[in-house]
UniProtKB/TrEMBL annotation:
Residue ranges occupied by any EAL domain in the UniProt entry: 24-273
Organism: Alteromonas gracilis
Coverage span on the entire protein: 400 to 672 of 672
Protein name according to UniProt: GGDEF-domain containing protein
Amino acid sequence: DQKRKQRGSVSVFNEALHAEIKIEQKQCERLRTAIENGELSVFYQPIIDVNTNTVFTVEALLRWKCEDDYISPAVFIPLAERSGLMPEIGAWVLNRALIDLSHWSFGNEISMSVNVSVAQMLDDGFSKILDSALKSTQIAPTQLHLEITESVFAIDKKLIGERVSELVDRNVKISIDDFGTGYSSLSRLQSIPFDFIKIDRSFIQNRTEESDTIIRATILMAKEFGCKTIAEGIETAEQKAHVSALGADYLQGFYYAKPMDANNLISWYNENY
Ligand code: C2E
Ligand code: MG
Ligand code: MG
Ligand code: MG
């Protein structure tokens, strides 16, 4: 009887797994057609220089418009990573973002920040993709910031190290994204020649004495390394005042602007600067 019960639960488990795999395959198929049908687009969110109050850079943020809804990248990027579509999608984002920057009248005054996923960092075709995007748009490499989430540095040290040195050779800037939330260690990060640290918005939005201490320590560490800090998720005037007083160099958040499509970004820029 015990045996039969076990067998029963195994087959229930198998069925559940099978159903999950089917859903995953379906979602992958949807994503594949989304790419083909042009349902993906890139939005841009300004990052402001605290000292000059001007736009320092804009972050390119991927959007998937599905029927009349936007599906969050937090949902479909993990799917794209698992299904092997991410290198292709990432290359598309990089090209789109640099093409847009090259068209903007204020494009020379700002830089472009593009997120790079784990799959892209592990892909040995990445530097070729990077070279061709820079070449075809004539954007200076120093005008491109690649945002790499901290947790990427927790995986394969050798591979990631090789990729990082390719980026350094090309003179693009490196930002550590979501700093303080990943599973990386400071000893790992010490070998990464980063230019910017992005302080995760959780430290700004759930403010405690401890989170303030972490922000202060992060800013101090960045200064010692000769790097700049960007604080994410600034939604209120209080947060802005508070985080600038703690010494962050650049601020990003809904307080300044939400991510916008290219046309809205241009209007926003012209209205404000
Ligand atoms: P991230 O790189 O940390 O990007 C910042 C996220 O915070 C964006 O979410 C942005 O819309 C949101 N945000 C900005 N200011 C505020 C604020 O004041 N309050 C709140 N609550 N949120 C704010 P989004 O666009 O949904 O993107 C989520 C994540 O998806 C990104 O986090 C990034 O990890 C990933 N992602 C987005 N686009 C790409 C891409 O093209 N490639 C890769 N690899 N990842 C991407
Ligand atoms: Mg980012
Ligand atoms: Mg971030
Ligand atoms: Mg984040």
